[in-house]
Every structure is written in structure tokens, then in C-alpha cells.
Amino acid sequence: MADRKEWMRANVQGENVQGTKIQAQRPKGKSFSEQVLREANFDFALLKGANFTSADLFGSHFYEAEATQAIFRGARLKQVDFRKAQLNEANFQKSLCRKANFEGALLVQAQFEGSNCQGVIFYGADLREARFLGADLSEADFTLADLRGAVYNEKTIWPADFNPINYGAIPVEWEIRFVDEETGEET
User: Which residues contact 43 (CB under 8 A, 6 or more apart)?
Assistant: First the structure.
């Protein structure tokens, strides 16, 4: 296993770290907000809770990175490699994810509201309970993806001839509610 390094009180704010190699390092909970991190290498990095809000990550690599609860809100993620990354509960709201590769990634409860995900590869990705409200998913590849419980609305754009219901996704107007049989109350 690669040597893991923890970034204690790391501050990269205001610095251009384009092409930086952060492979197998541990900047847990650190902020990369609004940074230019083009072609940076985060392969195998431990990034739980890291903040990449509005960062430019064009062409960067997160292969097998552990980035649960990471925030990529408004980030430029065009052509980013997220293959086999752990991205459960990650926030991709209003991000530009065009042609990003999430093949085999864990994206349970990930948020893609309002994101541009044209041409994204979700091949074999676990997208259970993900949120795609208003996302542009045109030309995305959902082959073997698990969308059970994922929600979308009428503004969500899916690939041509793709029926998200066949993959387990739920339109917002069909959101499941449980009713207690004894009291008649929603639970």
C-alpha cells in the first residue's frame, strides 16, 4: 500500500496547484475551494469531506479516491476521472461534469441537482438514492448502473431512448411515502 500522508492545517488557498500530485495523501476535510487544480492527481487519496466548491479540476484524476461527503458544488469537473472512487453523499450540485468518468464509482445519495453531466460515464456506478433534479444527463452512459431510489423531475434531461424507471429511479411526483396502517399517518 502506498504511504499515506495527512495534511495537517494545509492551506492551498490562492495558490495555483495545476498538475499537483496528491496521490495517496490524506487532506481530509481540507478546502480546495476556488482553486485551479487542472490535471491534478488525487488517485487513492483520502478526501472525506474535502471542499472543492467552484474549483477548476479539468482533467484531474480521483481513481479509487475516498471522497465521501466531498463538496464539488459549482466545480468544473470536465473530463475528470472518478473511476472506482467512493463518493457517497458527495455534492455535485450545479457542477460542470461533462465527459467525466464515474465508472464503478460509489455515489449513494450523491447530489447532482442542476449539474451539466452531458456525456458522463456512469457505467456500473452505484447511484442509489442520488438526486438528479434538473440535471442534464444527455448522452450519459448508465450501462449496468444502479439507480434504485434515485430521484429526478420533469426538468431532468436523460439520454435518448433511456427510461430511468427501468433502472429503479423515481420521478419526484412518485416519491414513496409510508402510511402507518393503524393511525393513517405518514411516517
Answer: 23, 24, 61, 62, 63, 64, 65
Exposure pattern of 144-167 as b/e (b: 16+ CB <10 Å)? ebbbebbbbeeebbbeeeeebeeb
Place of cell 465508472: 103
Q: What distance in Å separates the CA atoms of residue 173 and residue 176, rounded to the nearest whole number? A: 9
Q: Report the sign of the C-alpha dihedral through residues 12, 13, 16, 17, in that order.
A: positive
Query: pTM of the prediction?
Result: 0.79
Query: Which residues, in sequence order, are bridge partners of residue 106?
Result: 86, 126
Residues of the chain where predicted confidence (pLDDT) is lower than 50: 1-19, 23-28
Q: Could you read off the pLDDT of 131-171 as tens digits, one per residue? A: 999 999 999 999 999 999 999 999 999 999 999 999 999 99
